[in-house]
UniProtKB/TrEMBL annotation:
Residue ranges constituting the Glycosyl transferase family domain according to the UniProt record: 3-73
Protein name per Swiss-Prot or TrEMBL: Glycosyl transferase family 1 domain-containing protein
The species this protein was found in: marine sediment metagenome
GO terms for MF: glycosyltransferase activity
Classification via InterPro entries: Glyco_trans_1, Glycosyltransferase_grp1
Length: 127
């Protein structure tokens, strides 16, 4: 369980997932990038909801087992070789698709939006 509103990468969550431990975390910066709500754990918006979800995981063996299995599978996406593959896709998209269109001269928000749209359509990439 991690109830912090800001967590850069959520390394402690990834370590827990590698052991098959589902997590409950605040739906805040960084944490929602690691926990997949209702798949590897729960994202919550307040302490009351946090308490409810922790109790739910303790009481529901089947749900905990399902989340545990999902955690072990999902955490593999965070291995350095998998992360590097996704970044290479983003770099290739930027160089091959945006550079020829002279996107480097456009406002940063517009450039980021194009990369974000690409990431949303590409399996395994999320922002």
């Amino acid at each position: 369980c991690l109830y912090s509103w800001v967590e850069a990468e959520g390394l402690v969550l990834l370590e827990a997932m590698a052991q098959g431990t589902p997590s409950v975390g605040a739906n805040g910066c960084g944490i929602q990038d690691v926990i997949r709500h209702k798949k590897t754990g729960f994202l919550v918006n307040n302490l009351s909801e946090f308490e409810k979800r922790v109790i739910q995981l303790f009481k529901d063996d089947d749900l905990r087992a399902e989340f545990s299995k999902n955690c072990k599978k999902y955490v593999k996406l965070h291995r350095i070789d998998e992360v590097a593959k996704r970044w290479i896709k983003i770099y290739k998209f930027t160089i091959n698709e945006l550079y020829p269109l002279r996107y480097y001269k456009r406002p940063i928000e517009e450039r980021f939006q194009k990369v974000f749209e690409f990431a949303q359509k590409t399996p395994g990439i999320s922002f």
